[in-house]
Amino acid sequence: MKILVIDDERSIRNSLKEIFTDEGHEVDTAEDGVQGLEIAGQERYDAIFCDIKMPNMDGMELQDKLLENGIESPLIMISGHGDVDTAVECMRKGAFDFIQKPLDLNRILITLKNAVERNSLIAENKILKKKVYGADMIGNSQPMKHIREMIERVAPTDARVLITGPNGSGKELVARNLHQQSKRSAMPFIEVNCAAIPSELIESELFGHEKGSFTSAIRQHKGKFEQADGGTLFLDEISDMSLAAQAKVLRVLQERKLSRVGSDKDITVDVRVIAATNKNLAEEIGKGNFREDLYHRLSVILIQVPSLDERKDDIPELIEHFIRKYTEGGKARRFSPEAVRMLQEKHWPGNIRELDNVVDRLLILGDDEVSGQNVRDYV
Fold this sequence. Notes:
5-stranded parallel β-sheet, 46% helix
């Protein structure tokens, strides 16, 4: 294993290096947080041991910097007797454990073993999540490879994402994959279809309301932002949100605070917002339908989902996916090469959703092997 020890006391650095080297591990050392951060950014470490009290950058500051730079090595804090409260606060923010001075050999080795085992389980879990949740992102065309690469790079961060693309192209699926591959995957994924909620109810739906705040408010209601606290809020078709609601969403994004309808009390929330739209927001801004400042807050990362017409090479694989979806546990079915070719040549204004419906229809009405004639008759 590869271990980094960060401590301004040379004796501590040398003692830990000797202990870990005797156990067969490779050890690097740093004398303060600044140097430690630089080294940690150049190598991948199985564990990092760090003194809480150091010049230039203390352990808590270093922890924040490591997370900001996407460095997820288990962090074990070394604390003096007066630093226990600080060490506990570090653990609350993500450190694995803390060891009090004077250092105990057995405690050090047991803590290292537990940290590495937990990190291994987390890594395996991420791989499984990618297999499970990435499976529905069917296709190996160049546009799909690009989207997968974007998700892999963006998901571990807390950056806001704006997903654009035509109806039925899979924007929600991209949002779900972003959530499931993120650090928030164990927390809620809450979806709001802004186009499906009347404008007079959208604020109550998003921010909640207090009992008695309007005629039908017979009890207190937590809005979607509160329900998504710690997780991800997916605002689908955000271009259909009223300007008044947009202003309140902007405030939440800026201040991470909201007020329920009928209350002046601020509630702090920690939510990653992913938004989606099938409209050109630049045009909507020009028409006065969408706030430009909100657009810039939402579009830290832009992901453009292609139409099915732009990725027709994926159609055979998508057909196989939908066949399995509709015949699971039943009689095996297939499409003839001619039927597949005809579906590839078709124009798909409804995108993946339309193809899904067409495959379902052909499996119901077509022959055991869906033929080209079946496609001519029923599509």
